[in-house]
Amino acid sequence: MKYFSTRDKNNIVDSKQAILHGLSEDGGLYLPTSFPHVLPLEKLQSFSYHELACHIIHLFFDEFNEEEIRQCVNNAYDDKFDTEEITPVRQLKDCGLVELFHGPTYAFKDVALSFLPQIMKYANDGKEIMILTATSGDTGKAALEGFKDVAHTHLIVCYPEDGVSKIQKRQMQTSLGKNVSVLSINGNFDDCQRMVKKAYQDKLIRDSLDTMVLSSANSINIGRLVPQIVYYFYSYFNQVSKGILGLNEEVDFVVPTGNFGDILAGYFAKLIGLPIHHLISASNTNHVLSDFLSTGIYDRNRSFHETMSPSMDILISSNLERLLYLSCEDDSYIKELMSSLEKEGNYEIDSSMKDRIQETFLGYWASEEDCKKEIQRRYEEENILVDPHTSVALSVLRKHRELTGSTIPTIVLSTASIFKFPKSILESLKVEVPEDDFEALNQLSSIANEEIPKNIQKLKELPIRFNTCVEKEDVLSTFASIIKEAKQ
Ligand SMILES: *Cc1c(COP(=O)(O)O)cnc(C)c1O
In this structure, what DSSP letter does residue 464 have? Predict the structure, then answer.
């Protein structure tokens, strides 16, 4: 299996290089030259999570042998996850809810970021790897856990100083591991992501890297997307086994979306054989994507909102570039669109491309008020608490059904644990919100009748190790000095 850049289809690399480098030198993202096909669903339906993961990941990364993939899968999905199912599915009145937050940092990013470091170990050919990662909250901590003390890897995480929840910030600031650094940027997530992309072209960074390989743990890395395909299949078969879906019957997925990585993995699942009808993208108040999916116009020239679902506070969704390519297969057109996005902050796609995208993708958004209401309603009517990101998705499902009358069986992706966002949830439930986050956790725990996960409980005792905030103009030089230090 080979990979090519969305901005130059003749720029072809093997899967090891695609994983190792994350982003292509021309600024494009890697896509497989053709999509493989899974075994018949009849065969796959009895597979465990681990067996599905081995099968699907090996289709995309066939340069690694089966034994290597199996080891990566077994190391990734072990007792770091609090359930053997890895991504269990809960049944709600109107949908299946696949819980993607049972990993070490309690967000869906763990699914991919437990795997990526494992495969990088096989991909690096003995070289030292420097991994730069921008985070809107969850990727950072998941990467910090995944790469902690992994040989030949170094990790720098940057997050927006005021753009993550207190618990998310504390999780990152208290991280352990000799090979990791964390800094915050006086800006928003888009600034962080732009800096990481810029670092690839920056001379100072290149010089300081020397023989080190620069990589990324963001979902621009194909090694992040592929492991995420697995739970689309896993949750589908769960619904089949419960008799909610017939085998080969079509299903809709609703995905709370930010950088468009998770939902794109759903599209990959469709392309390799999962019978998906619609992929419904759920946005919060930063609804660039739902606007794009209905109008064909992408326009980031708008004000940026900090919301209760911070991991979706994004105005530039990097992975959309991959969908754009797959919907026109014209690299020079993609270059044109991306350059317009960079220069003007917007672009409009032609109508044939729009039609093609709309065959599968729908987009809606939920306001802060919708999101709070949904949390409250699910609690009152079904006695279940969901985090704000999941709530955005559930609210969008409600909207979609009201507008279209759709009765297609649906699976909603639940992307984070409630314990990452205690204050927002208490506020939604209209109970008094304590000033202190750990007090809020206790209160949430007693309302949910569920223990605070141990890695969150212990944050209170852990010393803060990283506390640097840098101005945007100093980010690249700060990266460079961390890189120099890492080499010694
Ligand atoms: C990252 C994240 C999302 C958005 O996923 P993308 O792949 O960026 O679209 C949604 N919810 C949570 C909790 C997240 O951490």
Answer: P
Q: Where does 211-271 show beta strands of DSSP type E?
A: 213-216, 251-256
Phi/psi of residue 293, nearest 5 degrees: -65, -25
Task: Give the global pTM.
Answer: 0.95
Those residues whose C-beta lies under 8 Å from the C-beta of residue 169, and which sit 6 or more positions away, are 159, 184
SS3 253: strand
Nearest C-alpha to atom 1 of ligand 1 is from which residue? 311
Gap between the Cα atoms of 428 and 445, Å rounded:
15
- Region 323-334: what's the mean pLDDT? 98
Q: Which of 98, 139, 144, 312 most suits a substitution to test ligand 1, by most atoms within 8 Å of the C-beta?
A: 312
Q: What percent of the chain has pLDDT over 90?
A: 92
- Total number of domains constituting the chain: 1
Q: Chain centroid to CA 264: how far?
A: 10
Taking CA atoms only, the protein residue closest to ligand 1 atom 14 is 311
Strand partners, 107: 416
Question: Average pLDDT for residues 449-467, to the nearest whole number?
Answer: 94
User: What is the Å distance from ligand 1's center to 210 Cα?
Assistant: 33
**8 A C-beta contact, residue 200 and residue 23:** yes
* 31: in domain: no
Q: What is the DSSP-derived secondary structure letter of residue 451?
A: P
Residues 259-295 pLDDT 10s = 999 999 999 999 999 999 999 999 999 999 999 999 9
Please state, in angstroms and rounded to a whole number, the distance separating the CA atoms of residues 439 and 428.
Answer: 16
**Of 264-268, 361-365, 436-440, which range is least confident?**
436-440
Whether 399 is catalytic is: no
Extract the tokens encoding 212: 């080190």
CB of residue 106 inside a 6 A radius of ligand 1: no
238: enclosing H helix or E strand: helix 222-241
* Structural domain span for residue 249: 89-107+225-420
- Evaluate whether residue 29 is within a structural domain: no
Distance 484 CA to ligand 1 centre (A): 32
Average pLDDT value for residue range 80-99: 97
Q: Is residue 26 part of a domain?
A: no
**Ligand 1 pocket check for 138: Cβ under 6 Å:** yes
Q: Is 163 in the pocket of ligand 1 (CB under 6 A)?
A: no
At 261, which CATH number? 3.40.50.1100
The single residue of 2, 9, 43, 109 carrying the catalytic annotation is 109
81 domain-assigned: no
Ligand 1 centroid from CA 258, angstroms = 5
